[in-house]
Amino acid sequence: MSWTLKLKTPKTALVAGLKALVAGLKAIDWLNYLTIVGRTVMILVGMNLGGSSYPWNPATVIYLLVFGVSTLILFILGEWKIPQVPFIPLSIINTWQRSPTLVAALLHGFVLSITFYFLPLYFQSVLGTSALFSGVLLLPMAIPVFVVDAFTGWVISAMGVYTCGLLIDLPHSRQWARVAIFQIILGAGIDPNFQALTIAFQSAVKSSDVGTATSTFSFVRNLATSIGLILGEVVFQNVMRGQYKLTGTLANGGGASSVFTVNKLPADQKTAARDAYYIAIRDL
Q: How far is Cα 45 from Cα 22, in angstroms, rounded to an integer?
């Protein structure tokens, strides 16, 4: 079955339309948009290089981090003084109710990225599972995420309120029930923050600012996800390098990407490598 929907569109003269287009383009906060893009790229690349491909003290890493943080100051000043229509209006983040919500979203993004990246690595490197089976083992966490997500909005609406250390105790051996139960608890705890924090942030701004607030919130969460993954990788690589020679070699070759090499090692070296992976992932 198909149908068409007729929409009434206003007729605008070509010259008037072009003037409106130019006025709209001028109103866009181009300078601060480019500033925040540059800042994000410099900080992420600097953090990714430092402690992984390079030590933290080379000029390249220092320059990227220093200029990345400096452009953050320029971005704040620019949003405060320059544009008629700010890219991220400071008015939506400078209150006691909104700022903690963004901080919570930042921390939630950290936990989310580290968990979904390093749990499959734990399954493959420590427990020796295949890549396919490691995805299956994530189901105990993924299913509660979808189930709880269906009820979070309803609970907030009904009650009117919204408000990972368990993984440290993950087993060294294939205790599947324990692994599954830990993930169920983790998934049920992570998911409410998807909707709850978004609703909390949206409810604290004016109706006219909801679109901008939602975009800002999504940007902060996505940025936190990227930073969390990079920080997790840096910590993981540093702990791996602190192990003995075999695991140091794995770390220098990219410990996360060397997981399939572990299964090809002799039995004694395989045990040592899996012990090192277990310690490195547990420290996250």
A: 35
Half-sphere exposure in the Cβ direction for 259 (13 Å, CA): 23
Predicted TM-score of the model (pTM): 0.60
| Amino acid identity for residue 197 in this structure | L
CA 78, 84, 89, 95 torsion-angle sign: positive
pLDDT at 31 over 60: yes
Examine the pLDDT at 176 and tell me if it is beyond 80: no
For the record, the structure tokens of 228 come out as 């969390």
Whether pLDDT at 57 is above 50: yes
Token representation of residue 80: 């405060």
Q: Is the dihedral of CA 113, 119, 120, 121 positive or negative?
A: positive
Burial class (CB in 10 A: 0-12, 13-18, 19+), 22: exposed
CA separation, residue 107 to residues 24, 197, 208 (Å)? 36, 11, 27
> What are the tens digits of pLDDT across the range 186-228?
777 676 677 777 777 777 777 777 777 788 788 888 888 888 7
What residue type is 116 in one-letter code? F
pLDDT at 273 over 80: no
How far apart CA 106 and CA 41 sit, in angstroms, is 17
